[in-house]
Amino acid sequence: MFLEDEFAIGRIRARRISVSVLVAVTAFAACIAAILGLASAARAAETPQASAQLAALVRPNDVNSGSLLFPSKEPGFYVEAPRLKTDVAIDVSGPIAGVKVTQRFQNPSQGWVEGTYVFPLPDNSAVDALKMQIGERFIEGQIKPRQEAREIYEQAKAEGKKTALLEQQRPNIFTNQVANIGPGETIVVQIEYQQIIHQSGDEFSLRFPMVVAPRYNPTPIVQTVEFNNGAGFATPRDPVENRDKIEAPVLDPRENARINPVSLTVDLKAGFPLGDVKSSFHAVDISQDGDQARTISLKADAVPADKDFELTWKAAPGKMPSAGLFREVIDGKTYLLAFVTPPTTPDTATPPAKREVVFVIDNSGSMSGPSIEQARQSLALAISKLNPDDRFNVIRFDDTMTDYFKGLVAATPDNREKAIAYVRGLTADGGTEMLPALQAALRNQGPVATGALRQVVFLTDGAIGNERQLFQEITTNRGDARVLTVGIGSAPNTYFMTKAAEIGRGTFTAIGSTDQVASRMGELFAKLQNPAMTDIAATFEGIEAENITPNPMPDLYSGEPVVLTAELPEAKPAGKLQIIGKTGDQPWRVEMDIANAADGSGISKLWARRKIDDFEARAYERQDPAALDKDIETVALAHHLVSRVTSLVAVDVTPSRPADQPLGSAKLPLNLPDGWDFDKVFGENAAPLGGAERHGSATPAENAGPEQAAAETQDLAASPEIANMMAAAPTAKAATMIAQKSSTVNLPQTATRADEQIIRGLTMLLLALTAASGLAVWRRRVKRIIAVGAKRNGL
């Protein structure tokens, strides 16, 4: 009986051991299967494209020079943004400047990239050439209708060919896209344009803008649509044309070094003996070559692109030219450029007209720092110069508006002191809702008094994206008022300021530093106090000429020249150019013999640029937008010019990017303009945007969290490939958000992949199960051996 019990107990123990071994073997097999599954999945994920993407990423310690890094989806890895270096060569010959802008796009990463650079040019520039350099070869850009140029570019990009596309987003904002820049490669793109030198009084000036300031972009408007049977559906109308195109990542200067270095030289051949030659905002070296020529270069090899370059010069005493006539013959046609400065002979017999001046001052966030100080000083000085018989008002605006006197009041000493004290207490903050302030200045100041002259003086940096909306307001509601603009700061929107003054029959004055306040405002006072030259017209005697620009001729203020271009149908025309006008009741007339015109270059391009400007300025009169676009396209294509409806595109015929390599895309970051306050523009502790969340883009997403912003930026990503590499695409909104977050949360370089951690954990679990199972079997066998031995010994 005892023997049977012993056998039964042995069988039970054997079954238990078998179950334990089976459990151990099953657990072992499951762990092995899990490890193999994870390993195979990881290997499957490492396709050639994924490998190429990982190769395109960098760790912070891998970067040896200053770079902007965008966090990637791979923990611890970043995408390095393309870099840009710009060289500018300006040749001034008399009244014309020819400019070559050379942009070097460098790809410091290990992947293939597409770079997009948003950059400014003068608003009167005639952009006519694009060249792309690849090694020793230069590829000339071809002018095409805008949509056709875009299609050519996209096809070349998809085929792996190096290609460049130059588009106009505003007359003073352009984008240059360069695709298929290889790892460690540099592509050189050269842009050429012509412009007319600006003259005011006895001073000539040239301005080269270096940075596009963040724009305030108002929310799209929804208007009620009325049908015959009542109200219908409303359709949104965006007041900001190409909203996403004019935005770019903006770096916080407190957290990032200045980027996008610019070198610049000017070869000045004035055509008359020179007096003072000065750079307003940059230190320069000036060398003399005779009495009519100077060579100007930056004292530093390069400067960051964060403020405009301005060069001014004057004639030697007694050598100031009063008129000029230049010509260029192209394809059997003659193009003329003429300028003449009317004599400043104030009419002393007629008492000065009483003035009604509405001062409008911008105190939004972009005006913080030196800009608001310049605006306060300028406005206080202007108010102090008012006569007791004048009437005036002060309107200030940010994202709200205040009409200080609630209408025009007499310019008594008491009212002037109140207004000056109010102006000196203004601070800069908030968005730039300019339209309500402009409407108040033009619509709500009451009728113009008999014999009075209504003037609206606008002091702003013009950092807005809804220029067309404001131009329409000036055109519709200006009445008899004249709109005079004062551009404030290191990077004003000169396109808006100049065009608003032209439409408003006023004048534009730029103030870039507090040192210029007294002199530039003094010039403005002289223009305000002296009657403008009106009824200006140009005709040709002895030859037919219909294409004279600008048309109509704008009014002029004291010291401003008449500048016109014309297209004549003959290669050797004979006859005279006659320009007439009047100052008050005094008539004025000048005649110039066409045969005496001096040879010039680039005049045909300048005529075409101004012809296009005339079309754009009178767009509101056209009922058919398609016909307007066709007229602009015809002129632009004939003269090889970039415009709103035409673009330059260059394509290398040889593919360079392998078909299995992905292409990343990123907008190149911009500096914040010199003197601007990052927190005032983008909002304290808020996600900053390229167009500005607080200052730059009044959209419903203002209060959105990081997840919503990241989702929005991925929708705006230039290509789907880069969205797979980056945690957030480097758009205007995401890049500056990333830059701010990166300053406080840095992923460690030693961060590892999650699947690797899982494999390691499963391996350790497998070893633990194997050891536990083996120990259980070993314990039972030892106990059995001990029990059998004890029985044998009779214990």
From TrEMBL:
Pfam entry (one): VWA_3
Domain VIT: 67-195
Alphabetized UniProt keyword annotations: Membrane, Transmembrane, Transmembrane helix
Top-level division of the source organism's lineage: Bacteria
Region (Disordered): 687-714
Entry-linked PROSITE patterns: VIT (PS51468), VWFA (PS50234)
Domain VWFA, chain residue ranges per copy: 356-528
Gene3D superfamilies on file: von Willebrand factor, type A domain
Residue ranges of the TM segments: 758-778
Name of this protein: Ca-activated chloride channel family protein
Protein source organism: Rhizobium laguerreae
Lineage: Bacteria, Pseudomonadati, Pseudomonadota, Alphaproteobacteria, Hyphomicrobiales
